[in-house]
Specification:
319 residues; binds 2-oxoglutaric acid; alpha+beta; 4-stranded antiparallel beta sheet; 7 helices; binds fe (ii) ion; Double-stranded beta-helix; 21% strand
Length: 319
């Protein structure tokens, strides 16, 4: 990752953010998904340290060649309870760490979630779950294939943020990211053309309750051929014919070549531009002893109005 893609808070900034997040965690009803708490969080997000707000604003303008911004030295990851072990774990309470990720996220755009995923909670937990080690989901601990988040969904997030609350015991788990802005250089013209055609199917996970086969073929690349947006999940997306299959495999190879891996430590917050960057994870060994890897996750939309029909009037959860 380019050094420009990393931004470390100074001690002073971190302390300032801690004060702001502490006040939020004490603001009633101290529940992330409640509208009045979100209103307080929205105001607080306007008072983030100035240099951080400037960096987020710059990233919104241009996500850079990596499509990732790694914020370091955020407060709130010390003195945390044991890592949850249940599946679909979410963070309803406005803890210090949940307040930090929410405030930073709301400065980027609007928090959203999907009703059928992790019960529609706006701050979700990414933790390894006993028995789900090999699952291609964030509950697993084997290699997780590169993907854009919710690739099946027409209103997938513009940004995904991941705040490391606790790293894995052996510090082996790597968040992998790969930017299509870098990968596209390795693609020949014909491959680019095939990837821009609706020759790929991405089914929603079973929890979304759509009948199998309901997915419509979509292109993997859209927009400027030299600087496209990307939509693909290398576990879930199926090319519909052999040529499309070859094109997807070549893209996957190019993405693998440019992919970077970062071992998140407590207080790191990765902001992924889900339109240009894919993400995945390397393998690690969970112990289920309360000390396992633990990330908070949020999804962000830049244009809230576009999802209005899928939400309650002031709601953040897409049906
Ligand atoms: O575990 C990770 O680092 C990434 C998991 C993931 O893909 C996600 O939570 O969306
Ligand atoms: Fe993901």
């Amino acid at each position: 990752m380019m050094p420009e893609s990393t931004f470390a808070l100074t001690h002073e900034e971190s302390t300032g953010l801690r004060g702001l997040a502490t006040r939020l965690s004490e603001t009633r009803p101290a529940l992330v998904d409640e509208l009045n708490w979100l209103a307080a969080c929205r105001s607080a997000s306007c008072r983030l340290p100035t240099r951080l707000r400037e960096r987020l604003r710059t990233f919104r303008h241009d996500p850079g060649p990596d499509g990732v911004l790694l914020l370091r030295n955020l407060p709130g990851a010390d003195d945390v309870p044991p890592t949850p072990v249940e599946s679909d774990s979410v963070e309803r309470a406005a803890t210090l760490s949940a307040s930090v990720i929410s405030a930073v996220s709301m400065e980027l755009g609007e928090l959203i979630a999907f009703r059928n995923e992790k019960s529609g909670a706006l701050v979700q937990n990414v933790v390894p779950v006993p028995g789900q080690e090999a699952q291609q989901s964030n509950a697993g601990s084997t290699v997780l294939a590169l993907h854009t988040e919710n690739a099946f969904h027409p209103r997938r997030p513009d940004y995904v943020t991941l705040l490391c609350v606790r790293s894995d015991h052996e510090s082996t788990a790597g968040l992998r990211t790969a930017s299509v802005r870098r990968a596209v250089e390795g693609l020949d013209d014909r491959t680019r053309e095939v990837l821009r055609q609706p020759r790929f199917l991405t089914d929603p996970p079973p929890s979304f309750g759509q009948p199998e086969g309901a997915a419509k073929p979509h292109p993997i690349l859209t927009g400027d051929p030299d600087d496209p947006d990307v939509r693909v999940d290398f576990h879930a997306t199926r090319p519909v014919d052999d040529e499309a299959e070859r094109a997807a495999r070549l893209l996957e190879r190019c993405l693998d070549t440019v992919a970077e891996s970062v071992r998140l430590v407590a207080g790191d917050l990765a902001v992924l531009d889900n339109r240009v960057a894919l993400h995945g994870r390397t393998a690690f060994v969970p112990r289920y002893d309360g000390g396992d890897r633990w990330l908070h996750r949020t999804f962000i939309h830049l244009n809230h109005r576009r999802s209005r029909v899928l939400r309650a009037p002031l709601g953040h959860v897409l049906d």
